[in-house]
Amino acid sequence: MSPHLACNQYPWITFYQREGLDYSEHLERALGECVEAGIQGYEPIAHLPEDVDTLAPLLTRHGLEMRSLYVNSVLHEPDQSEQSISGIIAIAERAKEVCSTQIIVTNPSPLRWGSAGAKNDEQLRHQAIALGQLGALLADRGVTLSYHIHAPEMSHSAREFHHMLLSNSPEHLTLCLDAHWIYRGAGNSNVALFDIIQLYGDRVSELHVRNSRNEIWTEELGDGDLDWKAIMTALEGKGVTAPHIVLEQAVEKDSPNSMNGFQAHKLTVEYARKVF
């Protein structure tokens, strides 16, 4: 059975920026290109419940589902975490009501705001508690919290990443496995990536899918530094057979420049249908 394939809005932002375009001004075009490329779902980045209200009719018009939604959060500071949690709950409630959204993905701000330093132990402990509270509140509403990281959380022996998961139950905190950020954050190490799958693979609710060649993001998903077939086999070994798949094949500074976002996503979907 062919899997449901969604995409995050971030890749489209990077492709449109490369063309000198403001993604927000070309949202209708991007959603149409998603559908034409063979994508069935869309994972936006939301800041307010009103963002859901704005996007929902556009998704309906294009026949796209919004099974998941990405929300940023600030959970390591006591004076900000309560407000962040209440804001996410409001967004989640609206998204579930309007779009039947099932998963909220959050990446608690990786570094201290206004500082180049990593979070200290007190902040990590507070963030872990706040994540658990958020996960419990979402679970009460029938929504799954999926924890996402970028490269910074893999620094300092991945202390932030490990503490968030070890401090919370799988019932309240699942994992959005962004395999390439883990790979890159660990010094471009597949060993570290597969060790993390062995440790936490049974908690994976969602995948963010990207690849690189020679450690640089490619325009389209394909064979490269990550072996996605092996990743799926490892996840199946942990009992995860149908995670929510979100394509996130973006471009960065040194990526090739041979195609536009639609062409890249069309090739990405063709490859993903073979792998997933």
Can you put this structure into words, describing what you see?
- There is one protein chain.
- The protein is α/β, with parallel strands linked by helices and 276 residues long.
- It has a single domain, classed as TIM Barrel (Alpha-Beta Barrel).
- Helix content is 48%, strand content 15%.
- Strands 2-1-10-7-6-5-4-3 form an eight-stranded parallel sheet.
- A hairpin with a 2-residue loop joins strand 8 and strand 9.
- It is globular.
- The termini are close together.
- The model has no long low-confidence stretch (mean pLDDT 96).
Q: What is this entry, summarized?
A:
The protein is of the alpha/beta class and 276 residues long. It is built from ten helices and ten strands.
Low-confidence stretches: none
Q: Using the alpha-carbon principal axes, give the shape.
A: globular
Whole-number average pLDDT?
A: 96
CATH topology, which one?
A: TIM Barrel
Q: How big a fraction of the residues is strand?
A: 15-25%
Whole-number tally of structural domains: 1
What is the CA-based Rg, rounded?
A: 18 Å
Largest sheet: 8 strands, parallel
| Known CATH architecture | Alpha-Beta Barrel
Distance between the termini: 10 Å
Please count the helical segments: 10
| Highest-level CATH class | Alpha Beta
Helicity range: 40-55%
Strand order of the largest sheet: 2-1-10-7-6-5-4-3
CATH homologous superfamily - what is it?
A: Divalent-metal-dependent TIM barrel enzymes
Along the chain, the helix and strand elements come as EHHEHEHEHEHEHHEEEHEH
Total number of β-strand segments? 10
What structural class is derived from the secondary structure elements?
alpha/beta
